[in-house]
Design a protein that fits this description.
alpha+beta, D-amino Acid Aminotransferase, Chain A, domain 1, four-stranded parallel beta sheet, elongated
């Protein structure tokens, strides 16, 4: 046969077909069997085509009696002509494969497996060819692109289902949307404020210098961060309507960010606390961070350096990714960019294995768009970085765990011996590691359920973009990163995940995934009792039938509000100004009793009888008890900080606070500020001391912190008898001083509030003494 007769795009020529048939007819019995097999495949609709080199699909279908119709560009005698076979048996098998494909050439395939590269060349009409099983959904760009996933996460709260659908993903912004860029700038600034407060608290907890005599940064920088965090919290709680938010100029933000960069980089420190207000600053900072954590869960793992990762929307395999921590650098990158990018908050404090970063590649399968049916693979693998984790260098070999990136680098010296040379672990190895460190239940209790809920949540939020199509399925690959509490964070979702045998781990996992897909879409579809391999159905959307009724059947049900719900006090009308056209303009002023800062917890709750009240009060660390302590203590701290952190109050009383009998010194006496460590233990963790079981928020670890000493402020148990005795002495001492010195009304309120804080804590510790 002449070489010019070979056609790689239109299949075999007539001469080549004759050659193949003649070669198979030499073994007459085998040729007859091939014809019988082909006729059965046509009759039972078992003809398949595989575009690409997915041998696992081909093997699984052939074992089930399917016949392959080879794509036209693969129908050639190139392997035979070049003698690429090691034995005559393999050469004969190739001839029989070509012969079978030629026998079913006139029939459309009933199963098509396509890869990402061949997708554009195998366009199939979804409406006409609905009986063909295809491994691709009609559209998937909604969640598999970085830009689409970012948009999906923003609307995901509409699809939250308790214990079923809940996604945890870093905050992301699309540069193609001008509103998102403004949102990113605001997010960056508030993150700088929370990062500064976390840094200060972490430094104090680790006995590191932050307030030194040589410091050049004023305490007003910390006050600035506190006020911005307070304003953010008020806006999230919808309380900013009744409270005016101070307008902050660009110049003020630039000045703050400049100081923030110097503090975090340890190029500068804070000046000593001459006004002796550090106790309230630390207490209020911890209170604000705990409250903000409810609205920003990533606060517990996003670190203190304010690092963001910039990803190209249309690139894969880690190409074009940049990292930066300064706002000016990030904006400069975006301004020079010609493509679309996604800005994502970097998880600075991930869970590490032997000081090395890793992520989890998890597969899931969608077999129906409506009702939405999702299958999750029980097996997965870990991808490691080749270098030790560090935030002092933003090189891709440290922070990007993609195999396509890590394969370019050599593993660092001093690497732990148990880490894999090829930078991959299978699930069994990881479970063995968890068992070794005493976290054997983390996978079944936290990691796997967390990944399951994230996958279901994302698919529900994107279901509207999918058309209802029959016989369509698709495999996806998710990348998750774990935080210190082993909670998985969804980083990205990949369509057409790489199933090639890059390492020994993928050579084991990937063929098993493909083989089990055939069990789900072929075997299970015909027989619900058939095995699905390692795939587990994690979600099947319930079908609801519409219920039609008459208008007369409609009704309204509800509950009337109690009379005590409505405010019974007098509303003061305050005249503000007079307009010549409209007349007098009046504003309503809320009638709050400002003299009573503290109020007993009984006034906030209504109980039907005494027994129910006692039941609620004495449950072991119930939400009621901890809520009462936290609410009353936090409301008082907020009231104090509203007065102390105000610009006028802070500046006007700077000199007055230096007096020996000043209110600030009285607060110092109340709090017993003898050293910074005792101050943190007594003023920052009073509520934490009441609850040694629940830890709602952890502060950031320091990069250079001593080994074995975390950044969580962990206090030793407090001696209640000694504390009660000291509190009583302090209260008596403060009352005597307050009677001897005539103070201003505002400063007297601060003292009274502080006294009530200590009194309330003393009372509550006595009340909960039996519980603790």
């Amino acid at each position: 046969m002449a070489h010019k007769s070979v056609s790689l795009s239109h299949g075999l020529t007539s001469k080549e077909k004759s050659y193949v048939i003649c070669s198979c007819q030499n073994k007459s019995n085998r040729f007859v069997n091939l014809k019988i097999l082909a006729s059965k495949a046509v009759r039972n609709k078992k003809i398949f085509s595989v575009y690409g080199s997915c041998s696992a699909v081909r093997k699984a279908l052939i074992e089930r009696g399917w016949v392959e119709k080879m794509p036209a560009n693969q129908m050639n005698l190139l392997k035979i002509r070049t003698n690429s076979f090691s034995s005559k048996t393999k050469m004969q098998n190739e001839l029989e494969r070509l012969c079978l494909s030629n026998l079913v050439e006139k029939y459309n395939p009933n199963f098509v497996w396509r890869t990402k590269d061949q997708r554009r060349d195998t366009t199939i009409d979804m409406n006409k060819d609905c009986n063909i099983i295809i491994n691709k959904l009609e559209t998937d760009a909604t969640w598999t692109s970085k830009q689409g996933l970012c948009s999906s996460i923003k609307r995901n709260y509409w699809f939250h289902i308790e214990d079923v659908a809940e996604v945890n993903s870093p905050r992301s912004y699309n540069t193609s949307d001008s509103g998102d860029i403004d949102g990113f700038v605001k997010d960056y600034k508030i993150t700088a404020c929370t990062s500064l407060l976390k840094w200060i608290l972490s430094m104090v907890a680790n006995d590191r210098p932050v307030f030194v005599d040589t410091g050049k940064t004023s305490m007003n920088v910390m006050v600035f961060a506190i006020n911005r965090c307070k304003e953010y919290l008020l806006s999230k709680q919808n309380k900013d309507i009744d409270r005016p938010i101070q307008a902050i100029s660009t110049r003020q933000w630039d000045s703050f960010l400049k100081k923030y960069y110097c503090i975090i980089a340890k190029e500068d420190f804070f000046q000593p606390d001459k006004a002796t207000k550090l106790s309230l600053y630390l207490s209020y900072s911890k209170f604000l961070l705990k409250e903000i954590h409810k609205y920003r869960p990533q606060l517990s793992c996003e670190g203190c350096h304010n690092i963001w990762i910039i990803k190209p929307s249309c690139c894969s395999r880690g190409r074009g990714i940049r990292m930066a921590s300064k706002l000016g650098v990030i904006m400069q990158l975006l301004n020079k960019a010609t493509a679309k990018y996604v800005i994502q908050k970097y998880i600075e404090e991930p869970e590490l294995i032997y000081e090395t970063k890793f992520d989890i590649r998890q597969y899931y399968l969608v077999t129906s768009t409506y009702p939405l049916t999702i299958w999750m693979y029980k097996d997965c693998y870990l991808k490691f970085s080749s270098q030790k984790y560090s935030l002092k260098d933003y090189h891709e070999s440290i922070h990007l765990t993609n195999n396509a990136v890590q394969i370019k680098y050599v593993n660092c010296p001093g690497r732990h011996a148990e880490l894999p040379i090829n930078n991959m672990w299978d699930l069994d190895k990881y479970k063995s590691y968890l068992n070794k460190i005493g976290k054997d239940d983390a996978w079944e209790r936290i990691i796997y359920p967390g990944m399951k809920k994230s996958i279901v949540s994302i698919m529900l939020s994107c279901q509207d973009s999918l058309s209802v199509s029959k016989n369509r399925f698709e495999l996806y690959g998710c990348d998750f990163i774990l935080d210190k509490e082993y909670k998985p964070w969804l980083i990205e979702i990949n369509s057409c995940p790489d199933l090639n045998h890059t390492t020994q781990v993928t050579a084991k996992v990937c063929p098993a995934v493909v083989s089990d897909i055939i069990k789900v879409v072929i075997d299970y579809a015909k027989n619900p009792k058939a095995s699905t391999g390692r795939f587990e159905r994690i979600y099947r959307q319930p079908l609801t039938l519409p219920h039609y009724s008459n208008v007369a059947d409609l009704s309204l049900r509800g509950y009337s509000l109690p009379i005590d719900y409505f405010y019974k006090g007098n509303v003061e009308v305050q005249e503000m100004y007079e307009d010549s056209k409209i007349g007098k303009q009046n504003l309503l002023k809320q009638a709050y009793n400002t003299d009573v800062i503290m109020k007993p917890p009984e006034e906030e709750f209504n109980f039907p009888d005494k027994n129910e009240k006692n039941t609620c009060t004495h449950k072991t660390f119930s939400e009621y008890k901890m809520g009462v302590v936290a609410n009353v203590f936090n409301e008082t701290l907020e009231e104090l900080m509203d007065r102390i952190t105000s610009n006028s109050n802070f500046s006007a009383r700077a000199k007055f606070d230096q007096c020996p009998s000043s209110p600030s010194n009285l607060i110092q006496n109340v709090c017993s500020v003898t050293n910074l460590q005792n101050l943190v233990r007594k003023s920052v963790n009073i509520t934490a001391a009441l609850d040694n079981h629940v830890q709602t928020f952890n502060f950031s670890n320091l990069d250079d912190a001593p080994r074995g000493k975390g950044s969580v402020i962990d206090c030793s148990p407090i001696n209640k008898t000694l504390l009660n005795h000291c509190n009583a002495a302090k209260i008596k001492h403060v009352k005597q001083l307050s009677n001897e010195v005539e103070l201003r009304n505002s400063t007297q309120d601060v003292i009274n509030a502080t006294i009530k804080i200590v009194s309330f804590i003393n009372k509550k510790e006595k009340e909960y003494e039996d519980i603790i």
